[in-house]
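Hi there, hope your week has been kind to you so far. Please have a think about how the structure follows from the sequence. I've dropped the whole record in just underneath, so have a look:

_____
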Amino acid sequence: MSPAVPRVFLVRHGETEWSLNGRHTGVTDIPLTANGEKRIKATGRALVGPDRLIVPSNLAAVFVSPRKRARDTFNLLVTHGLNAPTIPDSIAQITTTRPEVAEWNYGAYEGITTAQIQDERASKGLPAWDIWRDGCPDGESPQDVTKRCDSLIHEIREKFHRPVIQRASKGETECGRGDVLIVAHGHFLRAFAARWVGEDLERGVRFLLEAGGVGTLSYEHHNISEPAIMLGGAFVVDALEHVEREREQEERKGYAQAPLGV
């Protein structure tokens, strides 16, 4: 994909105890598990860097949820991707904590599983629960989340994407930064992807994004009126070779440190 076609990278926070056992985690601040941290570090090394999917010099903005699990995910993703002790100033300067990308407010369903919710509703004679249709009592409705998503999508397109696409359409070679990185949560990011392509949440969202997962949104035909979801992209050869060299170096290091047999 040409650099003149800007993208939005969606990164779900890493694994937590509640994501492991299926408890709905909205406003509760749950830390990453050790395995969650390990996987995010690996994701950073694989996907963040000058020759990777997420190229820091192409980022125009980074939006991070205020929840600790998202903030920690962002820090681990970038520092391990760039092999840096802290977030570089060039990225810190374009990073903001945005309440708009916080997780769906689950209200009365905070901290409980889908199975528990369905049992509770059945005991009250209520129909089976579908968050995309029903929302959450004392929390957010699909319409509430739609408003959050649509407002942010409008901001991204008008402030960051349209200028880049317009400069490219005029044949300019220096189109500026246009990529946006969002580090947030499962239900919100799935809703955001649906609204990106104009789908109504009430019709149901059939996208999955596992803990620590990365998704990409962009446009077809270099046209801001044709938003699209990228199902996959080709690996950058240099990046793949770099990963292979790192693996070989780690293996050699392990052999050198291993005790001699007797």
Summary: Residues 121 and 204 are 19 Å apart (CA to CA). The mean pLDDT is 91. The two ends are 55 Å apart (CA to CA).
